[in-house]
Design a protein that fits this description.
5 helices, alpha+beta, 233 residues, single chain, 12-stranded mixed β-sheet
């Protein structure tokens, strides 16, 4: 009898542990994400067909990462792919492909050693919302914004133009700075403009740039400038 009782107890513990482990792998994002639609997949296929040059994605494959919901709730076990063209963060969760539809609820998204935020920015005198890669974080964030534009194929070649028989997806990127909760502002890659954006510590930053011989046209140097500024009291 004792042996039977022990066997039942051990089996119950095993079932409990197995269920617990399975349960912990399940991720519920609630109303924050939906399965990608048929029309969405058709759009991806049409733009990614063999006659289109370039890519709409930051990376074509999904990469492991995690996200932090506002309120500091960490959700792990997600794979991400950033669709720059549609401004959509796509995810693989529990073997489903999802699109994040409530990015305003997310504090940070991390994948491929990069951190992304969804925030407001100013463009052509309008306030827009989009994803930005965080290069330096502090009193003034240095942000990287990706953009993809669709360029239709050109007419056949002429004596005045080489033409292009294929449609194109052209990627570009711009740098922004953001202080507090204010919309991010486009940052020109010139030392003068960087100093103006960090005007409250202009003297210290200018001295640091000259001593280190940093170039505003170099991304690594820009990051160092902002990290130095953010370290100042």
């Amino acid at each position: 009898m004792k042996k039977t009782t022990l066997t039942i107890v051990m089996f119950s513990i095993f079932i409990s542990i197995s269920f617990s482990q399975k349960w912990n792998t399940m991720i519920d994002l609630g109303d924050m994400a939906i399965k990608t639609t048929h029309s969405h997949n058709e759009m991806i296929n049409s733009v990614n067909n063999s006659t289109v040059e370039g890519s709409m994605f930051l990376y074509d494959d999904f990469r492991p990462g995690n996200l932090i919901i506002k309120g500091d709730t960490l959700i792990e076990g997600i794979k991400f792919r950033y669709n720059i063209y549609s401004k959509q963060m796509e995810m693989v969760v529990n073997n489903d492909t999802l699109a994040l539809i409530r990015p305003e609820k997310v504090k940070n998204i991390y994948f491929d050693r990069k951190s992304f935020i969804y925030t407001a920015y100013e463009e052509k005198n309008k306030i827009e919302l989009d994803y930005f890669q965080v290069l330096s974080e502090g009193k003034s964030n240095l942000l990287l914004h990706y953009k993809v534009i669709f360029i239709p194929k050109n007419p056949p070649a002429t004596p005045y133009s080489t033409g292009n028989p294929n449609d194109q997806l052209e990627q570009s990127k711009n740098y922004f700075y953001q202080k507090g909760d204010k919309p991010a502002i486009l940052l020109s890659k010139k030392s003068k403009n960087i100093l103006e954006s960090l005007s409250d510590k202009k003297t210290e930053v200018d001295k640091y740039i000259k001593e280190k011989d940093l170039k505003a046209t170099n991304e690594k140097d820009m990051v160092e400038i902002f990290q130095y500024y953010n370290s100042l009291k």
